[in-house]
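Pasting as-is:
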Amino acid sequence: MEKDLVARTKRFARQVIRLYSSLPKETAAQVLGKQALRSGTSVGANYREANRARSKAEFISKMGDCLKEADETCYWLELLNDEQLTPVDRVSGPLGEAGELVAIFTAIIKSARSP
């Protein structure tokens, strides 16, 4: 699963990059898009850091960062969608993937915390 999530989070980052690149140049779309770009691309970077954690506590903390960034990306993508700043079909893929990553990271954290 570890290698799968490395590749999956990188694919997710690339989806977000492509979405951002396709956004209209109007201010609202660009501001929300940049926020999604920042958080969406940091999910994979934080996941890589988590895999290099030196302790269980550090792993859980870094996974918490992954969860936070994935959830934040959901928020920005939802706003782009709600404000109809991009076609629904462009945002639905990344938004669905962000939701799945939130669920996966939540499960990993719960499992890591259990004795």
